[in-house]
Amino acid sequence: MAIVIINPKGVEPWISALKEVDSGLDIRAFPNDSNREEISFALTWRHPYGIFKDYPNLKCISSMGAGVDHLLRDPDLPNNISITRLVDPYLAQDMAEFVLALIMNHLRDLNAFKIKQIESIWKPAEYLRVKNVKVGIMGVGAIGAKVATELQKTGFNVIGWARTAKEELGMKVYSGTKEFPDFLSHTDILVSILPLTPETKGILNKKSLQLLPKNAFVINVGRGEQIIEEDLMQLISEGHLSGASLDVFSEEPLPKNNRLWRHPRINITPHIASLTNPTSVAPQIVENYYRMKEGKPLLNILSREKGY
Ligand code: NDP
Ligand code: OXD
Fold first, then answer.
1. Quick one: which of 191, 137, 181 has its CA closest to 161?
2. What is the architecture, at CATH level 2, of domain 89-268?
3. Number of H helices, E strands in the chain
4. 137-154, pLDDT tens digit by residue?
5. Which residue from 60, 17, 131 is spatially nearest to 293, judged by alpha carbons?
6. Other beta carbons within 10 Å of 52
7. What is the CATH number that goes with domain 2-88+277-294?
8. Mean of the pLDDT values across residues 95-116?
9. Which pLDDT belongs to residue 234?
10. Interacting residues of 233 by C-beta distance below 8 A, sequence separation 6+
């Protein structure tokens, strides 16, 4: 039995990290992997669609990230194979730090000062305070719950929204589509950390974004297809929203001619909110490889029914 790594961005750091955990692993690198019938476990990120048909004995596909939408998009994804994702404290911590940085940048309007600096303009301005804004987090799972906790520690008033009700998070968590409008109407800074599913695709559109209070700010670190970019730009132009920070886009890399690049009230980052650290996640991947071999239940398995 062997493992294949399929990653257009490179496989070396992954091979070293896995070998560090177990030097005896048989690891092959796509596309130079021969004897594909020997592969039972694949570790992948944005694989070429249809490729899994070439691996007749594949039993488990592990995403190289928290999200699995890149796998579910493949029309030829075999449905008898287990799919797992990564749950990692560093992914959650890095996301919490990034979201905090974006929120503080917004509260202090640092972008506006940068523009004034370029023009040598000395012009003090009022700013928003941590205790006076309410942050609403869409998706309080492995990552969103950590983001919420860290923001609370900084003094923010935080609320959440999830598919199912939760009591244990130490904050008000709204749940389901019924409570979504109420959640939005109580949110000054909206942070989406949702997985992409048929239910969350396009969830941030003109109708929902209009329910946010005037001057609300939007942060999307979930997936680009969750937000209708044209609706967002329109609501910012009309003055309903004060701006947005986007890390994820319906098309990545964001095409050069996309208007989002040039929008003065939108910050763009290239999907770097939280990057998987191979060394940190290697133990759980190796653990799942052994669980698969021994027929034991896998960690962090995708529910095909829920889509995340
Ligand atoms: P989890 O599966 O742990 O959490 C998902 C959360 O979203 C849960 O709270 C879940 O609700 C909620 N949710 C899912 N569907 C719905 C819905 N229809 N309505 C309301 N709530 C919903 O995922 P993670 O926290 O690990 O990761 C979340 C996403 O973050 C990833 O899928 C990925 O897209 C994104 N991400 C982005 C990164 C970046 O660099 N930009 C890096 C890492 C992740 P419930 O708790 O009830 O199940
Ligand atoms: C992930 C991501 O899903 O990097 O891990 O977006």
1. 137
2. 3-Layer(aba) Sandwich (3.40)
3. 9, 12
4. 999 999 999 999 999 999
5. 60
6. 23
7. 3.40.50.720
8. 97
9. 98
10. 259, 260, 263, 266
* Location of each CATH 3.40.50.720 domain in the chain: 2-88+277-294, 89-268
Name the DSSP class of 301: B
231 CB-side CA count, 13 A? 15
**68 — pLDDT class (breaks 50, 70, 90):** very high
The pick from 274, 284, 285, 302 for probing ligand 2's pocket by mutation, whose C-beta has the most ligand atoms within 8 angstroms, reads 274
63 lines ligand 2 (CB under 6 A): no
pTM over 0.90: yes
Name the closest-CA residue to atom 3, ligand 2: 67
In terms of Cα–Cα distance, which of 146, 43, 140 is closest to 89?
Answer: 146
| Mean predicted confidence (pLDDT) in 117-128 | 98
Distance of CA 200 to the CA centre of its chain: 13
Q: What is the pLDDT of residue 14?
A: 98
Determine the length of the chain.
308
Q: How does pLDDT run across 162-183, given as a tens digit for each residue?
A: 999 999 999 999 999 999 999 9
